[in-house]
Amino acid sequence: MRLEYIGLSELSGSLIALEGVKDVAYDEMAEVTLENGERRYGRVILIDGDRVVLQVFEGTRGISLENASTHFTGKSMDIALSKEMLGRVFDGAGRPIDALGEIYPEERRNINGSAINPVSRKYPRSCIYTGISAIDGCATLIRGQKLPIFSGSGMKHNELAAQIVRQAKVPNQDGEFAIVFAAMGVKNDTAEFFRRSFEEAGALSRVVMFLNLASAPIIERILTPRCALTAAEFLAFEHGYHVLVVLTDMTSYCEALREFSSSKGEIPSRKGFPAYLYSDLASLYERAGMIHGRAGSVTQVPVLTMPNDDITHPIPDLTGYITEGQIVLDRELDQKGIYPPIAILPSLSRLMKDGVGKGFTREDHYDVSNQLFASYSKVQDARSLASVIGEDELSELDKQYLAFGDAFERRFVHQSLVDNRTIAETLDLGWKLLTMLPRGELDRVDAKTIEAHYVEGAWKELFERKQS
């Protein structure tokens, strides 16, 4: 028997309230039928006795308090899943928007997912290559890791996210690779940029895209990462794909969550965000990982913009507590014209040490990374000193560090939007730059490794090639 409730007790924004409702559950889906026969869908967000509040996905415009009828489906929101999703484009709620019709589902699955038993988790090892030296060389992305990108308003994080999607790969012998890309709160031109970028690069066939536009209701923005991660888990743990999930921009998601919380009348916490922001973000980020007995993996790269470039803001602050490192974009580098403007010193990958080196990338990888970090940190000391006493008063060694710092930013960190460097090219480039410094300054590398890779004056080749 189909039970319907006629009429509404209250309507406010995208929320509707009903009285006298029995036997419904939090997060349950509802179908609202308008007077003209149009159907809209909502989700239960609040239960107070027999009073139920729904968030309507398509908004409440045109809904009548007297004549609207509501039917509760008895289940949470789910989406259709199939390998046919690869190469397709969906909206934030998982509905196809590429004019190719509905997919034939292998199964339907609750978008909220289920927690991975910590005992069944497999420790992440082996990396995903992005073709970007600053990431592959110094903050390597490990399969099964969650590694966020901290950016700022107006910086080139969209271009970086698109480049990672186009270039990311795993070693061929390690299995099939797929990407789930979710954009939240983006403008039409930004959504078109992503779609066109993937099509032109021939990468769309391995990508599942979820696009939530800024004009869409905020409830859809809250659903988008959950739909994307559900698709990723299906491809990874049912079909054995190594799946990279790129989520941009998590700040839009968190702001939608704040607006959603405010509309429910919840007591705000820091900066007006709900007190459960940490646990909500954790429910998304912790869906990355590998499982014993399953061939696939889910790796996350969430992108977020820091309001006012403040890394202590609740969104980056809480994200940093949950994830295993971060890649930080620097506005000063961006203003110098360096792309990608990745700040090497505050960026790190906490799982890098166990996924690089012999048997994974190259045996000298971790040593090169450590030495580049150490040398570049001395560049900052030399620059600080130069700002006080002037560059001419610096010692010869400090001047060498200044030259190394400039070359490191211009040759190693900087690369074009289409420059896809192999890990060997990245590490060789790092060694050539290190030859700008005296051999005695390489204190993070053992003598045997230096002997094998340090070639006196190798850095000159970089400048000669640039001039020619």
UniProtKB/TrEMBL annotation:
Record-linked NCBIfam families: PRK04196.1
SUPFAM superfamilies per UniProt: C-terminal domain of alpha and beta subunits of F1 ATP synthase, P-loop containing nucleoside triphosphate hydrolases
Record-stated family: Belongs to the ATPase alpha/beta chains family.
Lyase found in the keyword field: no
Protein's job: Produces ATP from ADP in the presence of a proton gradient across the membrane. The V-type beta chain is a regulatory subunit.
Lineage, highest ranks first: Bacteria, Bacillati, Bacillota, Clostridia, Eubacteriales
CDD domains, alphabetized: ATP-synt_V_A-type_beta_C (cd18112), ATP-synt_V_A-type_beta_N (cd18118), V_A-ATPase_B (cd01135)
All copies of domain ATPase F1/V1/A1 complex alpha/beta subunit nucleotide-binding, residue ranges: 131-349
Leader peptide range in chain numbering: none
Pfam families given in the database record: ATP-synt_ab (PF00006), ATP-synt_ab_N (PF02874), ATP-synt_VA_C (PF22919)
Residue span(s) of domain ATPase F1/V1/A1 complex alpha/beta subunit N-terminal: 11-67
One GO molecular-function entry: ATP binding
UniProt domain ATP synthase A/B type C-terminal: residue ranges: 355-453
Protein name: V-type ATP synthase beta chain
Keywords: ATP synthesis, Hydrogen ion transport, Ion transport, Transport
InterPro entries membership: ATP-synt_VA_C, ATPase_F1/V1/A1_a/bsu_N, ATPase_F1/V1/A1_a/bsu_nucl-bd, P-loop_NTPase, V-ATPase_su_B/beta
